[in-house]
Amino acid sequence: MIKDYEYYNAQNSNFWGKKSKKDLLNIIDVLKKVINKDSDIIREINLVNLKRQAEIKAAQAQAENQKKQIEFRAMDDKRVVSDNLYDLKAQIQSLENKQKVKQRQLNALEESLTGSKETIQKLQALLATSVVAILGLAIFAFSRRSKKKAKR
């Protein structure tokens, strides 16, 4: 089209060596075609830019959506970890309470065992004393009996 314009613009076919009406109309037609082609190119460029902007916005929206999903998952994970931590702390507290109860029971049983050992030792000492006393009485009784038999 530019070559056509240059060609028609170079024409000077008028009687006086100037451009004729036909030459000027051809130039105008070529310039209209150039303007229309420029308009088409600008529309195409605008369309490409709009598509590019739409793709960028879609990518940004997708990135935002992914970011929100990640944040939501992170919050869920934090909540799950927090709940698990709370449950574990409750279990630890429960086990500590059970351990305290068991320790009290163990202490009470140890005190009872100590008391029982002391009672057994006292009973053994009493039994030993009783056995010695019974043996002493038996020996005394046999010796008295032998003396009575000997006197008779």
What's the SSE blueprint?
Elements: H1 2-10, H2 21-151
Helix pairs in contact: 1-2
The number of helical runs is 2
Distance between the termini: 174 Å
Structural class: mainly alpha
Q: Percentage of helical residues? A: over 70%
Task: Using the CA coordinates, give the radius of gyration.
Answer: 61 Å
Element order, helices and strands? HH
Which descriptors apply to this entry?
152 residues, mainly alpha, 92% helix, 0% strand, rod-shaped, transmembrane helix, membrane, coiled coil
What does this structure look like?
The protein has helices spanning 2-10, 21-151. Helix 1 (2-10) packs antiparallel against helix 2. 92% of the residues lie in helices and 0% in strands. The longest helix is centred in the middle third of the chain and has 131 residues, at 21-151. It contains 2 helices and no strands. The chain is rod-shaped, with a radius of gyration of 61 Å. The protein has one domain (2-151). The relative contact order is 0.03. The mean pLDDT is 89. By secondary structure, the protein is mostly helical.
Compact overview of the structure:
The chain has 152 residues and is an all-alpha fold. It is 92% helix and 0% strand.
